[in-house]
Amino acid sequence: MANIKYTVPGMSDADSERVIALLQDRLHAANDLHLTLKHVHWNVVGPHFIAVHEMIDPQVEAVRGFADEIAERIATMGGSPKGTPGSIVENRTWEEYSLGRGTTQEHLGALDLVYQGVISSYRDGIKELGELDPVTEDMFIGQTDKLELFHWFIRAHLEDKGGNLSTEGATSEKDAAQSAG
């Protein structure tokens, strides 16, 4: 990352650069997630199509908002947010979403794993931000709260009356989709 020319008052350049790096990682994740959710919205089929189709759109809009908030925080801190598709692909640490057209349960199973990864990464960032920047930490906490709510919406479709998830033990989106389907 190039050295920043300025940052927010009361923060060292080194701390700011680390916070910007954490923010940039979440910007890539938020951009990837809202595109993935829209992909699911367009490709979901089956008896519960309309319920899942309509459940996904508010998630897309919220996550798009997260991306904007993150990018603006990067700029506020003196950084330059990178939101291009090439930047996402080049820097992501996760695999591209692997399902095309699929049933509601298959997509929800795959999304269970997607949300697990995104939420875990946010929580890792929260742990580090507590010492570096409580303002960004607060943003991450607020976004994690919403992501966990959306994850619950997904998991409610995958849970049996005993509280067991059909995706339990799945290690890939394809495994989760197959288990849920």
TrEMBL record:
Family: Belongs to the Dps family.
DNA-binding is among the record's keywords: yes
GO MF term (any one): DNA binding
Full protein name: Starvation-inducible DNA-binding protein
Highest rank taxon of the organism: Bacteria
Residue ranges occupied by any Ferritin/DPS domain in the UniProt entry: 20-160
Keywords, ordered alphabetically: DNA-binding
UniProt xrefs under InterPro entries: DPS_DNA-bd, DPS_DNA-bd_CS, Ferritin-like, Ferritin-like_SF, Ferritin_DPS_dom
